[in-house]
Amino acid sequence: MVREYIEVSKPEIEDLRKSFLDEVSSKGNDSIHPKDLQRVKTDDDWLRRFYLHQEKNQEKAREMMWSSISWRKEQNVNEINEDTVNKEILCSGAFSIHGEDVDGCKLLVFKCNKHTKGAIDVNIVKQCIIYWFERLERTTKGDFCSIFFDMEGCGLSNMDMDVIKYLIGLFNSYYPYFLNYILIFEMPWVLTAAFKIVKTLLPEKAKEKIKFISKKDISTFVPTEHIITSWGGKNPYVFSFVPETFPDQEKEKVVVSNNNKKVHFVDGSMSEQAAAATTAEKESDGGFLKVTPPGIITFVKDGNELISTLELQNADDSIHVSYKLKTTSPEKFRVKPSTGCLAPGETVVVNVTLFPGFQLGGLSRDKFLVMSTPMETSELDNLDLPELWKNTSGRKLYQHRLKCIQSGEVTKNGNVTVTAPTAAETDQSSISQLSSTISEIRTAQIELRQSVKITQYFQMVTLFLVLILGVVVGYMARNSKDTSSEHPYCNHP
């Protein structure tokens, strides 16, 4: 579904704006949030989306604007950020933005098996969903996106109708002209009936956007390069929460300290010190290499390991770039690959794993240094990366410094010792676990009751068939006896 650009004239937008602002004047400026009021006055594209969502019906567009902007004030949408939402949900990977669909629209991924109905208050979950919608809208500048329900491994306890209806309802009521596809990936058969109920609650336009896909046909809607391994592809991406960056924020730089403090990055390490000078020319920015996420490495639980991923991209379209990762604690981390060379525009995913047996609480003291240097064409024929990084004399070296953090979801990694949580965190964790356990027991009880009913039904059917068969066999036996007496094979004198 390629987004069709429909022209909306400037006079049409101005008419909608004037109509809305007249209503604001009659109700008072405090009836909507100041940021949204300013957006109405200056953002033509936002108004255009309301206009198109209602098929260029100005009255309906104005009503939707009022409904949406009133909702935004009631929910304090403009105040929602990473610091105000639940960190456990934010870092769990239940929601994320990753990849694009075949039309180039960003994917908002809901990994359903990361969510258990009732484990966390639904209003807290909804607040986190709003955070991701707002972030996605800023990322795409209001262009279409698709919502990807990753339902592999889900059970009835993960099927939260309220959350699913809320997600789709946001597109329908509060985020105009924003939805491309609703992709349902690997939906278990036990949830088919539940999703049929969801479809009945959707408007016809939304029903047309729903596409059920599996690993066999996912490439029909998601390009191969964006299909991660858990979806049957080769993209090694693993979720790691990346804080949002804004255009007006200063670009992450590696600034050498002025207080003679040393930071040692081991592996033929260099120490950074203001008074020290090296033969290599160090640049304060990241040069040609783009590092995502910038500035941090977030470790999350994946099975029995704590891992994080970095994406390194050669942002130049003509120069090869070599990179090398160093850490202050090489005994604690496995980094693959730690060195390499990127062609123009090429991207590589680096996996960083924390070895078992180390204190998670000490992660904040650990740092990584991503170094890069441009390569001459003549160097590529006989490239020896270890030798290149042993002798960097005379080369331009660009640097990114990364700080390690752990996500709120992390609890244990094999033998890893976790620092003691606060009493409040312990209570909240216990309540969440108890709620989750009760929900699972309730679900299991319902499934067991259904199984018993089905078994009883089949028993009754079987008994009925046996009775019918008995009657038929008895009738045939009696009929056969009567026939034999009427037509004897031998007549005796």
Automatic annotation (TrEMBL):
Gene3D superfamilies: CRAL-TRIO lipid binding domain, Immunoglobulins
Source organism superkingdom: Eukaryota
Signal peptide: none
A Pfam family the protein falls into: CRAL_TRIO
GO CC, alphabetical: endomembrane system; endoplasmic reticulum-endosome membrane contact site
Domain MSP: 288-407
Designated name of the protein: Motile sperm domain-containing protein 2-like
